[in-house]
Amino acid sequence: MPQRPSLASIERKAVWVGLLLLATGLHVFEAALPGLGPWFKPGLANIMTLLTLELLGPRAAFSLAVGRVVVGSFFIGTLLTPTFIISLSGSVFAAAVMLLFWRFVPGVGLAGISLVGALAHMVAQFFVVEMLFIHQLALYYLLPPLLLLSCVTGWLNGSLATYMLWRMKQHTLVEQV
Amino acid sequence: MIEEADDIRQAPSLSYWFKGTLVDRVLLVLAVLTIIVAWQWLYQNLSGHTPMVFVYHDDELLAKYPLNPDQPIHYIAKGSEGESEIVIDKEGVRVVHSSCTSKHCVRSGVHHHVGDVIACIPNHILVTILGAGHDSFDAVVE
Q1: For residue B16, what are the CA distances in angstroms to A54, A156, B11, B12, B32?
Q2: Which among A59, A76, A43 has a CA at the least distance from the CA of A158?
């Protein structure tokens, strides 16, 4: 007879699913925002990746970063389109960079992790667009102003995640997880 | 509910949440400085020449026109999914029509600064304003 999963394991999975749904909702919400063109989004969904990183660890955070792009793209109708490829590559690279900073840089907070994640996301998107869709180095002239905007949004999202984490840790369920 | 209200009162001020750790602040300063230096470097290499509009389809240079011509120029670029109509006049350069579905390129409006880029990803069309001597710059980047 297979061993039943522990209650703690089920609780962790439930929290992960909850965060994935929130991240997906924010992903869809951002897609509907009148942003600064196709290149720039505020990155609100990344707040859930940051919370997952702190609450459930790097593996859960990475799978959430991938999962929310796949599920979110399904809902907004961009699954397997160029938009999906650009979004997924940005999300995967940003998650990888955030995990590295979280693991190897002592003293870094969520604001710093979010900052490098936002920058990595933007750079990865440009790299993929240049490599796969528009083979022109001139595309990179757009990058510096967008990176400066990414600094602002990355810092704000990280600060917001820090506050949300503080609030969530006052909740009994999250403390147990 | 009363407990929740108490928690909010115990929370540090707003500035506390936005200041980050010392390492965060160092990262922010480093990132901003690096971006500004890179930006300056890019524009130093872009300026100093007569501005020209370059239209590309993937790697292929389709057309090259001076910015701000005496007479408006209408150019139709054949892309991967159809045509993009580009107009260059006294105001600058803009995409007035594109066969792509998103139309981000059309909505981005008129561009007239050196370094400005209009990209139509579905059509693989890129319009950029560069100095006339940009060829040497590309060689440096590559």
Answers
A1: 19, 12, 9, 6, 21
A2: A43
* Cβ atoms of A125 and B34 closer than 8 Å: no
Tokens, residue A118: 């936002």
Model confidence pLDDT, tens digit, residues A3-37: 888 888 888 899 999 999 999 999 999 888 876 55
The residue behind tokens 């007479």 is B71
Helix (H, G, I), strand (E, B) or coil at B129: strand
Q: A103-151 pLDDT, tens per residue? A: 999 999 999 999 999 999 999 999 998 888 877 777 788 889 899 999 9
Residue-range domains of chain B with CATH: 2-45 (no CATH), 52-130 (2.60.320.10)
Return the DSSP state at A131: I
Q: Find the chain A residues whose C-beta atoms sit closer than 8 A to any C-beta of B.
A: 37-38, 82, 86, 105-109, 111-112, 115-116, 119, 129, 133-142, 144-145, 147-148, 151, 155-156, 158-160, 162-163, 166-167, 170
ipTM of the complex: 0.85
* For residue B122, pLDDT beyond 80: yes
Q: Around B108, how many Cα atoms within 13 Å sit in the side-chain half-sphere?
A: 26
DSSP B54: E
User: Any bridge partners for residue B66, and if so which?
Assistant: B52
CA B99 from chain center: how many Å? 21
Nearest CA in chain A to B34: A144
Nearest to B61 by CA among B52, B70, B69: B52
Residues of chain B above pLDDT 90, percent: 15
Mean of the per-residue pLDDT values of chain B: 79
What digits encode the pLDDT tens for the residues B30-58? Answer: 999 999 999 888 777 766 567 888 899 88
- Residue B72 has a pLDDT of 87
